[in-house]
């Protein structure tokens, strides 16, 4: 009888502990994580009668796809990266070069006015409101497009967006430095960060910010490679540079206006903006590089515009390294 009572008491204690854990313990632990439903590979089996809500309202406990993998940035990693919206919809990228100035391409805003554009800094996951850092939005007071922009060739494809109010610089919102006039980038590989499509055939833009590691391509070699697709008389405009040409690894639709940025040195975790995503022949085709506006060719033009619009010179901008979170 005593043994039976002890057995019942022990089972009761275990039951109380398990019930307590159901109510209080961390219900979403390794190998599971709280994540948005669209990222889940397998939902955690917590139990039929489990009423716990260990995650936020817009998340579930699951085994999730690694959104911080080699093809995506981490939150706050590239704090100069800007997302551009029109009528509430994402349409392209830019880079923050001063607290109230965004650098982008002219072609993506060719048919837009100041009232049609909203600028967002500090963004990472376009579909989530629960991120390590909060994004901030600003509106555009003035658009300055290069007067010699040529839509058909991408020549002089550059524009500046002057904001109604400056962004407050912080860990995940920072400016990127620009090269001096005429600088030549000799790095083997540089990066692009943005929310463009993962492939030319993809039905929609990326929700989580991508990072794309691209080989720089000599202008002469680039022109010859593009002639295989665009004809033997194709000439690459003097204001353009090239990167890419690797299969399934490329900037793509929606990345227009985003920065191509290069490390300052092998052991230097800082970057300069070499280019702006301009155009390409589809995306991710082997031996077909993407084309970028050369920022170094337009540094004097940028400085002159800043001076006219009463923005301090960029000589003191912060050379920040990426803040890696998570």
Automatic annotation (TrEMBL):
Note the superkingdom of the native organism.
Answer: Eukaryota
Q: Which residues form the Peptidase S1 domain?
A: 67-307
PANTHER family xrefs: TRYPTASE-RELATED
Presence of the UniProt keyword Signal in the record: yes
Signal peptide positions are 1-27
The family annotation for this protein states:
Belongs to the peptidase S1 family. CLIP subfamily.
Annotated source species = Drosophila rhopaloa (Fruit fly)
**Record-given protein name:** Peptidase S1 domain-containing protein
Q: Which keywords does UniProt give here?
A: Disulfide bond, Signal
